[in-house]
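Input.
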Amino acid sequence: MSYDIYFLSRHEGQSWEEALEATEVAAASTGTSRIPAELLAAWQRIVPQACALLGDVEITEHEQESRDLSQSDTGIDLSVLGDEVSITVPYWHADAAAEGVIAQLLALSAIVEKETGLTAYDPQIGMPLADASLPQATEIMSSVATDLRSRYGG
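Output.
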């Protein structure tokens, strides 16, 4: 389970849920495809900024189909698969740790938005990430992590 952020392009009159569904349908129908040139160029601009923000990261590049940037201490993972861009963070963090990780998630999302022109959508809250607040996202991260720990230990 992870806290997920999806980067979407929304058409006029389309709800965020419809934009997310359209992205999922397009991905399912096309399978893995090449990363568009403009997204590859954006990736090249994102990586140094993400490294400055997150510190030590691991970068994986798979031909022309995918890119991945992950930070092992926080579990933050930025992925580009074809024309899909997302960030995931496992529900490991509670309380003050959750606030710090969510702050990094917000900052990384802002970088990705700036460089790709896509909008970060937070399905946990049901709105664009820019409209969400740090306390909202932190509360979700913290409460889910606490619940998982109480159920499964850790």
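Residues 95-116 form the longest helix (22 residues).
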